[in-house]
Each structure stands twice: as structure tokens, then as C-alpha cells.
Write a structure and sequence with these properties.
Layout lengths: L1 H20 L2 H61 L1 H66 L1 H5 L2 H16 L3 E8 L4 E9 L4 E2 L4 E3 L4 H8 L4 E3 L12 H5 L4 E11 L2 E11 L7 H83 L2 E6 L5 E3 L1 H6 L8 E3 L12 H16 L5 E9 L5 E12 L5 E11 L1 H21 L5 E7 L5 E7 L11 H6 L3 H4 L6 H14 L3 E9 L2 E13 L5 E9 L1 H20 L1 H16 L4 H35 L19
Antiparallel strand pairs: 1-2, 1-7, 2-3, 2-4, 5-6, 6-7, 8-9, 8-13, 9-10, 11-12, 12-13, 14-15, 14-18, 16-17, 17-18
Helix pairs in contact: 1-2, 2-3, 2-8, 3-5, 3-8, 5-8, 15-17, 16-17
């Protein structure tokens, strides 16, 4: 009993330690062991209580026997008293008989009650004993299965696929789980992909599946946290219900028990046990067993890796042996060549010294830093100019064992990943062609300077690639600052021109009269095209497509004229936007860039309102010059008739009435003409008050 108490206390202590360290797997393992041992001790206590109860029943039986003996003595005394006092004795016998009957009836009732309690406790003990026996049997089967794993050839010596199939099959049969699958975790894509999927009912393996964890955030959170997923009702459990439509319903899965396994401290994958048909309540022994199986998967993966490393090591060893044999053979051959090579090397060394001196002189004069990287060793040499750019004084340069200290450690945090990737990609691609990289590095004074790094792998005398990459560093900070200033100015120009009621352009014209737009910014006009500069770059005809069909030829001719004369451009044309015809006025002036190339700078504005206004004014002038002329001529004829002839009064009155009617018609027409003019001016949308400039005379003759 003391051994059990110590083991219970030890497992309880290990449980709490694992809980404090947040080691979920050890916490679950030791907590289950503690509960099982505690229940076993409680079962032993129950057996003791049963024995005690049986002893108490025997004592009660002895007490009843003593009471019966006492009763017999009383009966004997009653017989003697009956001889002396028959009446009194008879009454006493009757009284004692009744008392005896009552006592026997009470004892029998207590005996029956004790038998019922004893039967219930025996059934309870038998049930607990059955459960303990089942649990011991289950644990024994689990231990046998785990022992079989340790002896399995596929687990210890086979491939991962063979081992995974054996592990899945034995796990499914041991737990009587409908499906058992083993999944591997792919970190690059945050995806789980099945290695094997075993189905117990058919004793077969199903097709492989894969799921991106990003589609199942709650499940992914539990998996990445190393949490064991115990879902008795997988379709309702918060961690697994995300799989309902894509996995649970199609495969009739009701319960899931998932446990992760690790490789070198990182998430390696999952062991998944699933129950089909009906839900299943997973027992503590199931959890302990699956955790043990996940540890076996980890050991299997390490074993596979170890065998692969051993295989590679053996291959390398054989290659080394072959190389050694080849070297021994070639040593004699090379020895003869070495003398000639040494002589040539001395001559080449002298030439190299001259070349290096010339190279270093060029580097010094051009203020360019140099570096030399050796692919095989990873060592790198930096020139003194390289360090001078960073504010470090190291005459004669410096050798480093890796890129870390004087390059990676000085990179700007935002440039670290992309810049190192460029180097890695260049090396992985065989270091062919030119290496080129632009990034920021930390100056000794804390500032960041922009570096343009270029390099190329050297070739030997036979034009074969060597293991040396030679490169340069150029400080382009001033250029970058200028580019940023240019970009800021461009942004400012775009911001300003975007609020101008016109489209601003910078373009060049070829001999065909086609404009190549270099800068484009649309203004705030209501009717405008929706094209950006990139759209025009992809298709230079897009701007011409919106020009009115009747103006396209004239537009092209004016562009050709501008190309040949290099004179400012100013002309009007029409465009069609969303079915609306709009007039635009283009103005542009030529100027030469720093290379002598002529560029045009200008804008186009919407003048539709102005054109409409001019049309309305022209219409008014036409009406005044043609429509009013006829009644005025009639009035002139009538007045001449009156003045030149001595007409009767009645005839003069008749002519006067006609003149009055003509005057009324002219007045009506002038009012209608004035109303039409005001309507046109409102439609033209000109908010210009010219009333102060109009001569508001009351007569034409003053």
C-alpha cells in the first residue's frame, strides 16, 4: 500500500511540473496515470469495506444467537414458575412468547435489509472490478501493440510509407477506430497532406488528401499550439466543425482524436483517429495510446532520416574511395605536369601582380569598393574602399569567414530578406551571368547609404568557371536622393494638375504623326476619358479611338505638321465619350530635353460650353440680320408712302394701324429673341457677369 501511495504522489508531482512548464503531452500522460492509480487504491479500499461489513454481519449473527440462548433460559425459568404459579406462569409465557416473536420478526427484517445492502455493494464492487479488468486488458493490449511497433521491421528498417501503413493499420485495429490517417505538415504552404489513410472496415488504404490550414483557423490554432484534439462530436466541436462539409459529412465521420508529432522541435504532422457511423467517447487510455503512437511516428521519422544519412554517408565513402584511387593514379601524372605548371604559375603570378596592382589602382581612383567571394569556403574579402564607404578605416582590406559580419549585419531591416534572397538565388542558379543587387547599409555614423552591388564569376585560362566571384560596391546614395526628389516633384505635379479642369500631357511625336504619351494626368472635368498612362503605353491608339470620326484625319495632319515644324500646337477637335460629343482645345509647346530630343508639353480642355455659346450668339446675329429685316423694310415703305403722298386721313390711319401691328410683332420677336439668348447663356454654364460692359441705351438714335 505504501508503494502505491508513493507512486501516486510521484505521478501527481510530475503532473503539476508538466502543467507549470505547459508541456501538454506530459501533463496529459501523468494526469491519466495519477487518476488510474488513485482509482485502483479506491477499489482496494472498497474491498476492505466489504470485509468489514461481512465481519459486522457475523457479529450481529452471534449477538442474535446469544439473545436466543437468553430466551431459552427465560423459558426454563418460566416453566419452573408455571409449576408454582400456573396463572402467573402462563401469563409470563404468553408475554415472553410474544416478545420473542416480535424480536425474531425484527431480526429477520434487519437480516433482509443487510442482505439487500450487501448484494448492492457486491454488484457495485463486481462492476468496478469488471471495469478495472477491462482497463487492464485494454492497457495490456496497448502495451502489446506498442511492443509490436518496437519489433516492426518497417518501423525500424523500412521506408516512411511502409512504416506509416503498419502504424495506421495496428492503431486502427487496437483502438477499433473506423479510420486512422497520418498527415505531414508542409510549412511553406501551411498545409497538411496525408501520408496514409487506413479504413478498418475494408482493411484498405484510401487516396491521399490535403487541406490548407488557412481555411480552418480554429483547427490550425489547436494544431500549431500542440494541443491534442479530442472531439467526441466532431461536427459540433469548435475545433473540428470547420471540416463538416469538406471532410466529415462526405466520409460519415462523427468523432475525431488528433494528436501532433514533432520533428526537431517543430510541428511534423498529425495522427488522426476517426469514428464513422455513430459518435464515440474517447477514453483516457485511448488518449495515452495515441500519444505514445505519435512518439513512435517521431522516432520512425528520425530513423528514416538516420538511414538516409547513413546511405548518403556510405555513398560518399565509396565516392571518396574512388576519388582516392583516381588521385593516386593521377598523382604520378600530375607530378610531371606540376613542374611545368609551377614555372607557368610563377610567370602568371608576376603578370597577376601587375594586373592586381592595375585593378587596385582603378578601384582606388574610381572610389569603388571591391569584394571577392569564394563559393566553396564561403570566405569573402573586402577592399579598404568597401569599408571606407561605411566610415570604417581598414587599410589593405579584410577577410571574413562568412557574409554575416560585414554585410548581412549591416543591411537595412527592410532590405535584409530580399537582398539575401538575390544572393541565394544567384548561387543556387550556378552563379551564371551577372549578379546585381541594390540595398541600404548602415554607415558607421548610423546613417543609411544606398549601395549598388554587381559581381560575376571568374573564368580560368580554359574559359572554365572558377569558384571565385568578383564584385564591386558603388555608393549611389546621392542618385537615390535625387530620384526620390524627382518622384516627390512628380507626385506634386500630379496632385496639382489633378485639380485643373483640363488634361495635362507630355508627349513625343513620330514622323507618322502618332503621339507617344510620356506623362498623363486627367483633370476634374465631368466628360473625360478614363485611361491611365499604363493603358496608353500598352496601346498608343486608345487616345485616337475617342476622337470624332470627322476630326481624326485633321488631328493626324496637325500632329505631322507639329513634328516637321516644331511649332506650338493649338487647334480644336471633337471627342466621343459615353455617347456624348464634346469639343476640346489642345495647346502644347515644344522643348528639347537634355539629349536634344523634342518633347511637347501641354493640355487639352473641354470647350463644349464655349462652342455652344458661340453658336447661340451666331444664331442671334443671323436672326437680327435676316428675320427682322423684312418688317423693317415694310415699315420704311409705309412711312415713305405717307411722306411722299398727300393721303387722306382715313388712309393714313389705316397705314398707322398696320405700322402698329408690325411694331407689336417686332416687339414680340425681340422679347422671344432675348429670352432665347438668356436660355442659351444659362446652358453654356458661364458664370461671367458682363452686364457692366453692356450699353443699356434706350434708343438707337441717341
Amino acid at each position: 500500500m505504501k508503494y502505491f501511495d508513493l507512486e501516486i504522489l510521484g505521478n501527481y508531482f510530475l503532473w503539476k511540473v508538466a502543467e507549470a512548464e505547459r508541456n501538454r503531452s506530459d501533463e496529459l500522460f501523468y494526469s491519466n496515470r495519477y487518476l488510474v492509480l488513485r482509482d485502483s487504491v479506491n477499489n482496494l479500499d472498497i474491498s476492505g469495506r466489504v470485509a468489514k461489513f461481512q465481519f459486522q454481519v457475523e457479529m450481529d449473527q452471534k449477538q442474535r444467537e446469544n439473545e436466543l440462548l437468553k430466551t431459552n433460559e427465560l423459558q426454563n425459568k418460566a416453566t419452573i414458575l408455571q409449576q408454582n404459579q400456573e396463572r402467573i406462569g402462563l401469563m409470563l409465557v404468553l408475554t415472553l412468547s410474544l416478545a420473542l416473536l416480535y424480536f425474531q420478526w425484527g431480526s429477520a427484517r434487519r437480516q433482509r435489509r443487510a442482505n439487500v445492502i450487501l448484494t448492492e455493494q457486491r454488484d457495485q464492487i463486481a462492476s468496478q472490478a469488471t471495469e478495472i479488468s477491462r482497463l487492464n486488458s485494454t492497457l495490456q493490449n496497448h502495451l502489446v501493440t506498442l511492443f509490436d511497433f518496437s519489433k516492426s521491421k518497417s518501423v525500424n528498417f523500412g521506408s516512411m510509407d511502409e512504416a506509416a501503413k503498419d502504424i495506421a493499420r495496428l492503431t486502427g485495429r487496437t483502438l477499433s477506430a473506423s479510420r486512422v490517417s497520418i498527415w505531414k505538415y508542409i510549412k511553406e504552404t501551411d498545409t497538411i497532406e496525408s501520408i496514409v489513410c487506413y479504413e478498418l472496415a475494408t482493411d484498405s488504404f484510401k487516396d491521399k488528401l490535403s487541406f490548407p490550414l488557412s481555411d480552418y483557423p480554429e483547427y490550425a490554432k489547436a494544431v500549431h499550439g500542440g494541443k491534442m484534439i479530442v472531439a467526441n462530436d466532431a461536427r459540433a466541436d469548435s475545433q473540428t466543425r470547420e471540416f463538416k462539409n469538406s471532410y466529415l459529412l462526405p466520409f460519415d465521420i462523427h468523432s475525431m482524436l488528433d494528436v501532433t508529432y514533432s520533428i526537431d522541435g517543430q510541428l511534423g504532422g498529425l495522427l488522426c483517429c476517426e469514428q464513422q457511423g455513430t459518435p464515440r467517447e474517447w477514453k483516457p487510455e485511448d488518449l495515452i495510446f495515441t500519444k505514445s503512437v505519435s512518439d513512435i511516428i517521431t522516432l520512425t521519422l528520425r530513423s528514416v532520416q538516420r538511414r538516409e544519412y547513413e546511405k548518403q554517408l556510405r555513398q560518399h565513402s565509396r565516392e571518396i574511395e574512388r576519388v582516392n584511387e583516381t588521385l593516386e593514379r593521377r598523382v604520378a601524372e600530375r607530378t610531371l605536369e606540376l613542374e611545368n605548371q609551377i614555372r607557368k604559375a610563377r610567370e602568371a603570378s608576376k603578370a597577376l601582380q601587375v594586373s592586381e596592382e592595375r585593378y587596385r589602382s582603378i578601384i582606388t581612383v574610381s572610389n569603388t569598393g571591391a569584394w571577392e567571394y569564394h563559393i566553396e569556403t564561403g570566405r569573402i574579402w573586402y577592399s579598404s574602399e568597401y569599408f571606407a564607404m561605411l566610415g570604417i578605416d581598414k587599410p589593405g582590406g579584410h577577410w571574413d569567414e562568412s557574409l554575416e559580419d560585414n554585410w548581412v549585419a549591416r543591411l537595412h531591416p527592410d532590405d535584409l530578406a530580399p537582398s539575401t534572397k538575390v544572393v541565394d538565388d544567384f548561387l543556387k542558379a550556378g552563379s551564371l551571368g551577372w549578379y546585381e543587387n541594390i540595398y541600404r547599409m548602415r554607415h558607421q555614423n548610423g546613417d543609411w547609404i544606398w549601395i549598388w552591388s554587381r559581381g560575376r564569376r571568374l573564368r580560368d585560362a580554359n574559359n572554365e568557371l572558377t569558384n571565385t566571384i568578383l564584385g564591386t560596391h558603388i555608393d549611389i546614395t546621392a542618385r537615390k536622393i535625387a530620384e526620390e526628389k524627382i518622384e516627390q516633384n512628380a507626385q506634386l505635379i500630379r496632385k496639382i494638375t489633378s485639380q485643373v479642369p483640363a488634361n495635362t500631357y507630355m508627349f513625343e511625336i513620330d514622323e507618322r504623326g502618332v503621339a507617344n504619351i510620356l506623362f498623363l494626368n486627367r483633370g476634374t472635368e465631368e466628360y473625360n476619358h478614363d485611361m491611365e498612362l499604363k493603358d496608353e503605353s500598352e496601346n498608343s491608339d486608345r487616345i485616337r479611338e475617342i476622337i470624332h470620326q470627322d476630326d481624326k484625319i485633321r488631328f493626324g495632319e496637325r500632329m505631322k505638321e507639329a513634328y516637321h515644324t516644331s511649332q506650338p500646337i493649338t487647334f480644336q477637335y471633337r471627342i466621343v465619350v459615353d455617347g456624348n460629343i464634346r469639343w476640346r482645345w489642345m495647346k502644347a509647346v515644344p522643348d528639347k530635353d537634355q539629349n536634344g530630343k523634342i518633347l511637347w508639353y501641354g493640355a487639352t480642355s473641354d470647350i463644349t460650353a464655349l462652342v455652344d455659346y458661340i453658336v447661340s450668339v451666331e444664331q442671334i446675329i443671323f436672326d437680327i440680320g435676316h428675320v427682322i429685316r423684312r418688317p423693317v423694310s415694310s415699315m420704311l415703305g409705309m412711312t415713305k408712302l405717307i411722306t411722299d403722298n398727300n393721303l387722306p386721313v382715313e388712309e393714313i390711319k389705316d397705314i398707322s394701324r398696320k405700322l402698329h401691328k408690325i411694331s407689336e410683332e417686332m416687339d414680340k420677336f425681340s422679347r422671344e429673341l432675348n429670352a432665347a439668348y438668356h436660355e442659351k447663356s444659362q446652358l453654356a454654364k458661364f458664370n461671367i457677369d458682363v452686364s457692366s460692359s453692356i450699353d443699356k441705351r434706350s434708343t438707337l438714335f441717341s
